[in-house]
Design brief:
By secondary structure, the protein is mostly helical. It is built from 8 helices and no strands.
């Protein structure tokens, strides 16, 4: 099969994976937990944000008639890569809002870095506000995770909370906050490819 057909199948496969994952999270007991989804069907070159930026540079330099097709290919690639699916919305936002304002292709990486840092900071501020977290403590937890690649300990998460939870609420709150911090790291820090 050609590459586009493969990407189409892979995208559909990942959509089904996400639906099953969300479905199993809602049910406590399910045989679907025993199903192993193999996301990496065949070995290919590593596709990360740095690779996408190179594609954006090519998109920026291409003829107008080719831009729509190349943009669609980039979006399909984002949807087809498990590591980039969470970043798809933000990268599309960059393509739509920032790419047209860039005149020199060499400015794309710097413009993307500024965009990404601003989005990251806004999301971090939002997370801290919604969960009533101490910003500096959250940054420390994130830095430690990125350095060690180990999920934060409960004591580390407790240190991020402005108000310590009651005993009965503790487990639920700590799991929720940990999951949100890990999702944040997955979105903004992992799979960036040195960007």
């Amino acid at each position: 099969i050609d590459e586009q057909t493969f990407e189409d199948y892979k995208s559909k496969y990942l959509d089904i994976h996400d639906k099953v994952k969300n479905f199993t999270e809602k049910e406590k007991v399910s045989i679907l937990d025993d199903v192993d989804f193999e996301l990496e069907l065949i070995h290919r070159d590593e596709i990360n944000v740095a690779y996408i930026l190179r594609l954006l540079s090519k998109l920026h330099e291409s003829e107008e008639k080719e831009k729509t097709k190349q943009r669609e290919e980039i979006i399909n690639l984002l949807g087809g890569e498990a590591q980039l699916r969470s970043k798809k919305e933000l990268i599309e936002k960059f393509i739509d809002q920032n790419l047209p304002k860039i005149y020199d292709v060499d400015e794309i990486p710097e413009a993307f870095a500024l965009f990404w840092d601003a989005e990251r900071q806004a999301a971090l501020d939002n997370l801290c506000e919604e969960e009533q977290l101490i910003l500096e403590e959250v940054k420390t937890v994130i830095e430690n995770y990125l350095f060690t690649s180990r999920r934060p300990l409960r004591d580390s998460i407790v240190a991020t909370l402005k108000e310590k939870p009651k005993i009965l609420e503790r487990k639920t709150i700590l799991e929720r906050v940990t999951d949100r911090i890990m999702a944040f790291v997955g979105l903004f820090d992992e799979g960036m490819g040195g960007v």
